[in-house]
Each structure stands twice: as structure tokens, then as C-alpha cells.
């Protein structure tokens, strides 16, 4: 009886072991299928998947490393990630790696520049999470690098373009300000020129036209004189409303006297030319000086000339 019971026990135990073995084989098959799907996903992704130990030594790399860095997978395995860095970038990233290792927390968005096999600078965005061994101890990192070189260079180019446009905009504002000043000066110059034209016609031409009118002229001569006077009025009429001259308060008789003074005529000569007494001319000279704000007894400055005119 005891022998028979032992046989039955062994049979049951064998069946249990067979079931456990079947479960294990099924689990292993499922695991291999998952690994196969995972490897397929890793190979078709555009990112470079890798695994490093606590010292940053590559223990695994996907085949995508060839497309991004130009190295075959077996060239990467056993090397340290910072071998592909240089200069100050290398120093900074080594310190950053060991700081992350000390904290042992997942990270994302870490950026640095690695050198490809042909010396090209590849700007990477790194995302990783800690890995643990069978004892549950922190063993290293598994993650992926994404090539963001084109994106970063495009952003830099855009920022540079924005900066250049800002500079051009500021330059344009300065140019516009300068143009406004020039336009204002041009308007002032135009107004000054208009005033001079009107003043010169009033002072240097019209008094003599009036004098001619009072002389004995033939009918044709009078007609021509009227035409000349009419044309002059038409020429200066657009400017008259803008006229602001120091001489606008002088009478026609005073303007005649001032014009003759400018040409060097003495008081006696002016009196004879205008048919007036020299006392009258002196009186007019006094009034001209007063209206023009001239205190020197012997000098009159004509607004249309910078040269002082000396009375005689």
C-alpha cells in the first residue's frame, strides 16, 4: 500500500512539474515575442536607443546609431559616451552625467553636442531612466538620443533673423526720423525762399514799375508795363500769404530809398533821383533804421543782403 501511494504521489508530482515547465515555456515564448516586438520597434524608430553602466560605458546600442553618428554598433559598445564630446562641452556634460547618476532619477530633454564619425557636430536631446540588476541595485541607464540638429539650427537661424529684422527696424526708424528733419528743413528753406522772392520783387522791382507808370509812356509801353506788372503779381501770388519779412512794414517810398542806398547812392543823389529834398531823404532814412531796429546812425542793413549799407 505504501509503495502504491508513493507511485501515485510521484505521478502527481510529475504532472505538476510538466505543467510548470509548460507555463515556463509559454512565458519564455511570450517574453521572446515581446523582445522581438521591442527590438522591431527599436530598429524602426528614428531615435538611437542605448544602455550604459554607472560609468557611462555603452553596454547596448541600437543599429540607428549608424544613421545618426556614422558608427557601427560594435564600434560603440565598450566606449564611454563622453568620448564623443570635446572641449568645454565635455567637461560640462561629464559633471552633468554624474550628477544625474547620483540622483538616480529619470530625466528628459538633456541636450549636448556629440561628434559623429566624420567630425560633424550632432545636437542630441537625451531621455533616460535608471536600470537595476537582479538584486535591485542601481546599475546604469537606458534611454534614447534624438537628433535635433536641424531643429536647433533652424531656431537659431530664426532668432538671428529676428535680431537682424529688429536692427533693420531700428535703423529704419532712425532714417525716418532723419527724413522728417530733412523734410522740415526743406519746408523751412522753401518758405524762406518764397519770402525772399516776394521781398525782392516788392523791394527791387515794383517801386520802379510804379515810377515808370508816373512817367510819360507811349500807349504800347504802358500796355507792356501793365503786362509785366500783372505777370509779376501772378508769379509771386502763391507766396504772398506766406510772407513774413522784416521789410513788410516799410512803405513803397522807404523801399525805394533803401534800394538806392544798397546801390551806393548818397542822400543828395537819392533826393535828385526821386525829386525830393535831402531833408526828406534823411527823414526816411531815420524811419527805415527805426523800423529795422538799427541804432547805428550811418548804417542800414538791407534784409536781402548781408552787407551793411553806409549812408552818405
From TrEMBL:
InterPro entries, alphabetically?
Biofilm_reg_signaling, PAC, PAS, PAS-assoc_C, PAS-like_dom_sf, PAS_fold, Sig_transdc_resp-reg_C-effctor, Tscrpt_reg_LuxR_C
Report if keyword Nucleotide-binding is assigned. Answer: no
One Pfam short name: PAS
Tell me the organism.
uncultured Desulfobacterium sp
Keyword Coiled coil applies: yes
Tell me which residues make up the PAS domain: 34-90
Stretches of the chain forming a coiled coil according to its record: 155-196
Q: Which CDD domains match?
A: LuxR_C_like, PAS
Q: What is this protein called?
A: Transcriptional regulator, PAS domain linked with LysR-type HTH domain
Q: Which PANTHER family match?
A: DIGUANYLATE CYCLASE DGCP, MEMBRANE PROTEIN
Gene3D superfamilies, per the entry: PAS domain, Winged helix-like DNA-binding domain superfamily/Winged helix DNA-binding domain
**Where does the record locate the signal sequence feature?**
none
Q: Which UniProt keywords apply?
A: Coiled coil
Name the Gene Ontology biological process terms: regulation of DNA-templated transcription
Every PAC domain range: 108-160
Q: Which GO terms describe its molecular function?
A: DNA binding
